[in-house]
Amino acid sequence: MAKDTTYSSILPDADGYFPYTSEDDAVWGELFERQMAFLPRKVAPEYLEGVEKLGLNADKTPQVKDIDTKLYDISGAGAHGVPAIIPPSQFYDLLSQRKFPVATFLRRREHMEYIEEPDLFHEVFGHCPMLTNNAYADFIEGFGKKAKSLGKGYSWHMFRLFWFTVEFGMIRTDDGLRAYGAGIVSSPAEAENATNGTALMQDFDLLTAFRTPYRIDIVQPTYFVIDSFDQLAETLSADFGSLIDEAKALGDLPALFESKQAV
Predict the structure, then answer these.
(1) CA neighbor of 120 nearest in space, from 194, 9, 33
(2) What are phi and psi of 177, to 5 degrees?
(3) Cα distance between residue 15 and residue 23, in whole Å
(4) Which SS3 state, helix, strand or coil, does residue 155 take?
(5) Where are the alpha helices (DSSP H) in the chain?
(6) Which DSSP state fits 149?
């Protein structure tokens, strides 16, 4: 959902497969091996189980079509290839169908450490393993349906909720706090920041999440912590519209970061 990108969309062949190159395979493999070596004791066990269920590995750049088939068989979820930028309406519509929109381009070597726009590695490695969890997939689907029904005037606050759960969520486990958000698991810097004990951890609360500002170009100063993925799915019973109206009336909470300087 970035405003600008230096990357171009790629098109699939007649069978729905994308023409990834040997260099793409090498970049994917290096990213995969680096993150998998870094993530033990930092991520939710459900995430690591999802990586195994999807058969992700360092050997080959995964294909969205294959991920989609596997997800459907596991949890009824899916993945749908999209260009680098899609409008919020299409984004929410795909989620409401229990399908996650996946940008199909892969970052270049000069962006190995950080890329602002979501690429295939972020989407497949970061997001798709958690979609093998039924309660998490229920939340994704219900979130999309809520966002669609509420409309444009509520979109920004809905994306705040998405940011603090799907992108940067944390969960309590028997072994301590662990990450499940894609923005954490796909980024070494974010994973270190979220698990080294320095960032502010807050009990997950819908109203607070709706009132909390964020920046996309820094490691996060705060994270929201859930107790279970069932808890996340159960939030769908709340009246999101009324809560967002209340959040608007109360105003944003003080930002925990400096404003971005104009350039």
Answers:
(1) 9
(2) -70, 135
(3) 22
(4) helix
(5) 22-38, 45-54, 64-75, 88-96, 120, 134-150, 155-162, 182-185, 188-195, 206-211, 229-234, 240-250
(6) H
Closest CA to 208 of 254, 167, 144: 254
Six-digit token pair at 116? 């602002």
Which of left, alpha, beta for 173 (phi over 0: left; psi -120 to 50: alpha)?
beta
With beta carbons less than 8 A apart as the criterion, state whether 100 and 94 touch.
Answer: yes
Cβ pair 140, 77 in contact under 8 A: yes
* d(C-alpha 58, C-alpha 40), whole Å: 17
Structure tokens at 149: 């029904």
Q: Which residue has the tokens 């499940």?
A: 180
Tell me how far apart the 2 most distant CA atoms of the chain are, in Å.
Answer: 53
CB-based contact 210:161 (threshold 8 Å)? yes
Q: How many CA atoms within 13 Å lie on the side-chain side of 213?
A: 13
Asked whether 201 and 208 are in contact (CB, 8 A), the reply is: no
Strands 78-82 and 99-103: parallel
- Spell out the per-residue pLDDT of the chain, length 263, in tens: 334 467 887 889 999 999 999 999 999 999 999 999 999 999 999 999 999 999 999 999 999 999 999 999 999 999 999 987 789 999 999 999 999 999 999 999 998 887 878 899 999 999 999 999 999 999 999 999 999 999 999 999 999 999 999 999 999 999 999 999 999 999 988 999 998 989 999 999 999 999 999 999 899 999 999 999 999 999 999 999 999 999 999 999 999 998 875 43
